[in-house]
Amino acid sequence: QSLDRPGRFDKVVNVDLPDVRGRADILKLHLKKITTAPNVESSIIARGTPGLSGAELANLVNQAAVYACQKNAIAVDMTHLEWAKDKILMGAERKTMILTEASRKATAYHEAGHAIMAMYTAGATPLYKATILPRGRALGITFQLPEMDKVDITKKECLSRLDVCMGGKIAEEIIYGKENTTSGCGSDLQSATNTARAMVTQYGMSEQVGPINLAEKWESWSGKIRDIADNEVVEILKESEERTRKMLSKKSVELHRLAQGLIEYETLDAKEIEKICNGEKLDKTKTSTNTVVEGPDSDERKSLGNDQKKVPSLIKA
């Protein structure tokens, strides 16, 4: 703090992350350095990359150029840029990982639960893609992208974020029972807990606690009010769990359809997910990148979730 005292550095210039117009200009600058196809539009990529810095956008273009070279393409097109965007947003693909059939199916239901909640929960951030191709440290990812840059969040959007986080865990419980849910929901619960805690201690969105900011100097508040805040966080999370269970039970047909679609096609975008949930057929090649083996007999999930009567046809009659 001594640096910004009067007479030293009086002016502070805040440099925020680029908005959609800034990202488009940055992408244009870097795209000039490579050969691009006529269909490349920097504005489309810019709209789909909220929150990325200039360095990350430069990396996106470089990754797209490398991928185009690997594919022996004469120019970088939108397909290469979309691939690079997915790699940066969702992590690198782990194509050599060996999966058991039960684990892959459980991941499909887990990601389907997230996707269903993102589609049908009011106020949720629009769905972008869902995949059961392992990326980074995750066995699967359901990714959402805002339609435009966001600088704030409403209580309704906070609650919808909680419900989407709970989707994977509750989907596993519905299909396999509470005893066979996996540790894959750990990061989801961490994200949900952080959001619920922020609602109570920072955003003033709790009726029990009221319009108080408890986040700063948490230890200075009385034990009574801290207990109230902690109990309120737990209550918000349990209410979200119940809302999610009701929604996924209501959308059981769509849940089974989408899980089956992910097993067959591995990666689906928002439009494809909507088609599958409506029972429509996709004009797309079935894919399974990873080696899938039969799991051990001790894995109880092998015998669960296989009731074919519950799984509706992917194609409308």
Automatic annotation (TrEMBL):
<keyword id="KW-0862">Zinc</keyword>
<dbReference type="GO" id="GO:0007005">
    <property type="term" value="P:mitochondrion organization"/>
</dbReference>
<dbReference type="GO" id="GO:0004176">
    <property type="term" value="F:ATP-dependent peptidase activity"/>
</dbReference>
<keyword id="KW-0482">Metalloprotease</keyword>
<dbReference type="Pfam" id="PF01434">
    <property type="entry name" value="Peptidase_M41"/>
</dbReference>
<dbReference type="GO" id="GO:0005524">
    <property type="term" value="F:ATP binding"/>
</dbReference>
<dbReference type="InterPro" id="IPR037219">
    <property type="entry name" value="Peptidase_M41-like"/>
</dbReference>
<keyword id="KW-0645">Protease</keyword>
<keyword id="KW-0547">Nucleotide-binding</keyword>
<feature type="domain" description="Peptidase M41">
    <location>
        <begin position="98"/>
        <end position="276"/>
    </location>
</feature>
<feature type="domain" description="AAA ATPase AAA+ lid">
    <location>
        <begin position="44"/>
        <end position="82"/>
    </location>
</feature>
<dbReference type="InterPro" id="IPR027417">
    <property type="entry name" value="P-loop_NTPase"/>
</dbReference>
<keyword id="KW-0479">Metal-binding</keyword>
<dbReference type="GO" id="GO:0046872">
    <property type="term" value="F:metal ion binding"/>
</dbReference>
<comment type="similarity">
    <text>In the N-terminal section; belongs to the AAA ATPase family.</text>
</comment>
<keyword id="KW-0067">ATP-binding</keyword>
<dbReference type="Pfam" id="PF17862">
    <property type="entry name" value="AAA_lid_3"/>
</dbReference>
<dbReference type="InterPro" id="IPR041569">
    <property type="entry name" value="AAA_lid_3"/>
</dbReference>
<comment type="similarity">
    <text>In the C-terminal section; belongs to the peptidase M41 family.</text>
</comment>
<dbReference type="GO" id="GO:0004222">
    <property type="term" value="F:metalloendopeptidase activity"/>
</dbReference>
<protein>
    <submittedName>
        <fullName>Uncharacterized protein</fullName>
    </submittedName>
</protein>
<dbReference type="GO" id="GO:0141164">
    <property type="term" value="P:mitochondrial protein quality control"/>
</dbReference>
<keyword id="KW-0378">Hydrolase</keyword>
<dbReference type="InterPro" id="IPR000642">
    <property type="entry name" value="Peptidase_M41"/>
</dbReference>
<feature type="compositionally biased region" description="Basic and acidic residues">
    <location>
        <begin position="298"/>
        <end position="310"/>
    </location>
</feature>
<feature type="region of interest" description="Disordered">
    <location>
        <begin position="279"/>
        <end position="317"/>
    </location>
</feature>
<dbReference type="GO" id="GO:0005743">
    <property type="term" value="C:mitochondrial inner membrane"/>
</dbReference>
